[in-house]
Amino acid sequence: MNKRKILNVSIAATSMILFASGLTTSVSAKNGLSIVKVGKTVCPAYGIANFHTVYSGKTHRITFTGTASGFKTLTIKYGNKVVKSVKVKKNGEKFKVNVSFKGYNTFKIYGDKKILKTVTSSKYATKKPNIYSYDQSEDNLKVKLYGKKGDIIIVWKNGQPINRQKVVSSELTTLTVENSAFDDNAKVVITERKLGKKTSKGIQLSKLDIGEHAIMN
User: Fold this and answer.
1) How far is CA 22 from its chain centroid?
2) C-alpha distances in angstroms, 113 versus 17, 33, 36, 74, 88?
3) In the chain, where does DSSP find H-type helix?
4) Contacts of 74 (CB under 8 A, 6+ apart)
5) Among 77, 159, 175, 180, which has the minimal tally of Cβ within 10 Å of its Cβ?
6) What is the pTM of this model?
């Protein structure tokens, strides 16, 4: 039996099972993959359709939504740790899973034991600030950077925010950090936050010699 016949038999068998359970209206092959139509939703016979991720800066949670077919348990790992596991009762079942987390590790979504989706920090987190230059005066350190309009630039001192500034254009944005922020060897960090995404990883700032000008790009 050739590959085309094997595929047709597989699709036919899947169709009989799903029709008998009343879960689907049709099964077809597209690009060599089995496709299941549940109501108006078209799903892979095994996998996730309409997959979306949304991050909330208020709750520090990421939300995964989609439509599941072909497996019984949806499992989410963060790093190598299982953080959520939900049962899938039928093909074409919609899911919405919220996960609270810290850090910038990778999420992996499994259908039973098969990995279906990978979500890296580039998907849910803002990129690091794109710093252009530093200028040190007797009073302050001026940081010039390129940011996305609407993003929020935040300066932190020992983990506490001391300055916030909204990016208003695609031109260079200048952020002023008073020299006193560096007193007592304080850790001063700059981050960027985009609406709907996690705050970026931080870049640590240091005082320069007075009059020193440093270009980063």
Assistant:
1) 35
2) 22, 19, 21, 9, 14
3) 3-21, 121-124
4) 68, 84, 85, 86, 87, 88, 95, 97, 109, 110, 111
5) 159
6) 0.75
The C-alpha angle 166, 170, 173, rounded to 5 degrees, equals 50
Length of the chain (residues): 217
Query: Are residues 72 and 85 in contact, defined by beta-carbon separation less than 8 angstroms?
Result: no
Residue with tokens 């077809």: 28
Amino acid making up residue 177: V
Residue 49, both tokens: 């359709």
Q: What is the mean pLDDT of each run of 10 residues along the chain (217 residues)?
A: 42 38 42 51 78 93 95 96 95 94 97 96 96 96 94 96 92 93 95 94 95 88
Closest residue by Cα to residue 27 from 89, 74, 88, 69: 69
d(CA 198, CA 156): 16
Contact 6, 32 (CB under 8 A): no
Element (H, E) at 118: strand 114-119
What are the strands, taking DSSP E only, across 70-102?
73-78, 81-87, 93-100
Distances (CA, A) of 6 to 24, 49, 58: 22, 25, 51
